[in-house]
Fold:
Amino acid sequence: MTWRNRTVTASVRVRSPMSTPLPRARRRALPFALMFCLCAMANGLIAADTNDLATQLRQLQEQNRALQEQLRQQSEAVKRLSERLNDLERGRENAPAASTDAGTSDRSTQPGLLTRGLSSENVVLSGEGGLAFFHQGSQGHFPNAEFRVDEAKLFLDAKVFQDVYFFAEANLITREQDEEYLELGELYVDFENVSRLWGQDRLLNVRAGRIDIPFGEEYLARDAIDNPLISHSLSDLWGVDEGVELYGRWKQLQYVLAVQNGGHPLLRDGEADKAVVGKIGYDPAKWLHLSASAMRTGNLDVQKDQFSELWFGGGFIRQLGAAATTTKFHAELLEGDAQFLWPRGHLKSAGGWLRFDDNGARFSRRTVFHSSAPATLASVYLET
Structure:
């Protein structure tokens, strides 16, 4: 008897998920789901691009504002430089002595004596002189064909503190001196740009000490190194006196106002009455400078003051009445100036009026004076 084992194999069929068909509803929703995903991704990309664009626009705006601020600062710097060049062309209109800072950096940024002590940065020692040969007729000042040192001066210019300067001038020889001796010229303390305290540049500056009488324009170019001609004008108004001076500029306008002793003595004042001097300048164009000056000498004492500190026409203003009856005298002056400035030459003209009076025999005199350029009544200076 034979036994046979029968093995029954049961097989199970497994269907792949991919081959399983989706329900019809899901198949219809699948494209919409894909489209939603794509839109969400695109919206994210667009939002990121929009943020980047806004950031770039803000950066461009900030750069534009920075460039505009730099342009404004540069425009102001160019304006200040133009004003300084105009001052230099008019010959030290508002700068002490020879405007030693003409080709240097702003002196206000340099250390002063009170912060650093004596050094070449805050003290400038300089000088100027003129050598001449004069030959005139027998009635002139130089009838013997003279070689002479016509002028010799020493200058000390020191920065004391920020915008505070000290200036001193020693006259070794001047044409007006009759004797060979040392003479004090200007000596003052200069408080520059006081108006900066309330935000106005160069509107107010103050000088105190022994200063030039700010009448007319010729005194600004009277030194030999500044005068293009050999001689001075016929009126030749100038002087140095003790007092206080205010000066400044606003746009095309400049002004000077001074109150000074008026009398000639250096150490004492013979009268309480003071000299008052004022000048207003105007520059309508780079080639034209106009100014008007006025002055009263104040009452001067014949014995104590002797004569005025103002030089006019070859001598100091003094009493003209009889010495026995004259004890006081005074003078008033007006002057108008016009200067035409070209790159290689200039023409300067001045005209004025002087009234003199004293308490003696009521001596009174009025004088009208005029000059064109230094030296003669009709002379034009041209550089070659």
